[in-house]
Amino acid sequence: MRRRDVIIFLALAMAACPLAARAQQKAIPVIGVLNTGSPGPSSAPFLGAFRQGLSEAGYVEGQNVAIEYRWAEGHYDRLPALAADLVGRKVDLIMASSPPSARAAKGATSTIPIVMSGGADPVGSGLVASLARPGGNLTGVSVIADELTAKRLELLSELVPRARVIALLVNPNNAKYNDRAVGDLQEAARTKGWKFHVLKARSESEIDTAFASLVQLHVDALVVGPDPFLTSRREQLVALASRRAVPSIYAWRDFVASGGLISYGPSLTAAFRLVGHYAGKVLKGAKPADLPVEQPTTFELVINLKTAKALGLTIPQSVLARADQVIQ
Questions:
Q1: Do 150 and 276 belong together in one domain?
Q2: Is the pLDDT of residue 7 over 50?
Q3: What is the CATH number of the domain that holds 173?
Q4: What is the domain range of residue 163?
């Protein structure tokens, strides 16, 4: 080969390399994760379950799929801009980690597929047309938690039979859940002749303030709402409940694993794993409009006996017999 031919060959090869790299990069789908919370230990189990579901569907982060994470850090008003940023980056799919995230993603795009871990009523909130045939560009898992608030109060009353003053902790930014939960607990409290208080917290400092008011209000037992921000602050909530010696019930077992007293609700990690499976199906060509919104069929009752002992509570055998997990 003559020198001139060698130079031309090398020039063509060098020019082709970046093109090949870009083509390979373009072939890897990109998932945008829209998260209401913050990066760290509070979100790690759920994102780990999501990545596990993705892996089981054939997609491994860093190998054949890329993931871009966006964090609202508890500020729900940031979600629309974060969703718009993901849309502007032309991601192939958006994983919405909560109902507020799903609403923001839905408002930002009608074409990019969205897979959510959402609230109990995606139809009523306008996210999907129906559970069986969602229509549009959104599907996922509807986590039933809101309707169980009154059931949680009933369980808590079995653990603290002498309770006469109860409180519900909610995030005022999550009005859709609050309206239903407050109404349910007000009715339950009225029936039992209890005093009922609603405490509100949308930041770490407001959580501290809410717990300080428990003493002034002489609250005997606390129900913590299944809000994404409050879930992201579970370590703080469990520590304050212990410090104030207030028996509290939560929606998710992760609170009890962190030292909380009792929880009742579906498994969030199982839900996020299923969301990962759904994301894999969409990346392989399935349309969200044709994928039914899944709902959990099993619910976990989890009790922490060490915490009960610290609070001076004896768990009735009738409750222990119904528990799915008892943490010693």
A1: no
A2: no
A3: 3.40.50.2300
A4: 146-265+299-327
Instruction: Give the per-residue pLDDT at 14.
Output: 43
Q: How confident is the model at residue 2 (pLDDT cuts 50, 70, 90)?
A: low
Regarding whether 122 and 63 lie in a shared domain, the answer is: yes
- Distance between CA atoms of residues 35 and 22, nearest Å: 28
Specify the pLDDT at position 19.
31
| pLDDT for 328 | 87
Mean per-residue pLDDT for 264-281? Answer: 94
Q: Are the C-beta atoms of 116 and 140 separated by less than 8 Å?
A: yes
Do residue 128 and residue 245 come from a single domain? no
Per-residue tokens: 148 = 């169980």
230 contacts 237 by C-beta, under 8 angstroms: yes
Going by C-beta distance under 8 Å and a sequence separation of 6 or more, which residues neighbour residue 181?
A: 146, 149, 168, 170, 225
Q: Cα–Cα distance between 322 and 328 in angstroms, integer?
A: 16
* Residue 140 sits in the same domain as residue 150: no
